Amino acid sequence: MHCLRYPAQRLRRQAIRRSNRSARRSFRPETRSLCLPSSLSSCDRTHATQMPQSRRRPPGVNVMSSCRSKQANRTPRLCDIARAAERIRTSFFSSMMCKCIVVHGGTRFADEVRRRSSTTRSPPMNQPQTKHELVEEIRREHDELRELLGNIHHMLAKRLETVAGVSEKLASLGEHVETHFAGEETAGFFDDVVDCAPRLSDRIDALRTEHQQLLSVVRQLNDVASEGDGSSDWWQRLEAAFHDFSNKLMHHEGAENEILLEAYTDDIGAAD
Hints:
This protein has helices at about 1-25, 40-50, 65-75, 80-105, 105-120, 130-160, 165-185, 190-195, 200-225, 230-270. It contains ten helices and no strands.
């Protein structure tokens, strides 16, 4: 009797365990059924039923609205603040530039364009130019020569360059002076002055002669620089020779400026 009752108890216990397991499995939150809207497709239904409960959204909640709510609740980062500040700054300066051009008739913009165009190099003197453009070109060349001479004076006084560097700079100065003189003679500057003011012909001839004399002096200066040994005596001799050449060149340029003022403002200006 005991042998027959034992298998029955064993089978009963196994049945109880199976029922308990099935009951626990039916109440798991990951697998329990959901009330899904009818608008979802079969693929979305399958994905929703397989998704854990912690990641599921309640029915009827849109994906985009959920993302927007997350972005609204998110704390702004430093990079977002910097990016927004850059957009505000750019739009502010753009609007200010537009107001400046519209309200003031573009005066500031025109002044900026004029300032930048004045820094660019004008066409060579051998190209066809009006009389006014030619005079302005010569004056600009005189200013460049004056600045170049000042830089070389400072270099020789402080002895900032090597012997080779000094020789190279003086050679560049000689080429600059030669080009400047050739431009004055071949661009029609002297001829226009003589045609419009014949009384200045003698002074123009004197300026032509000075051109050749100054070119000879600058060649001698280059010879002294190329033969330098870097000694103190060589520096002093070169500085004295350059000082003499600089004075002669500035005196020559001053005479040309006087002719420009006298001929252009009186004779050429009246003829125009």
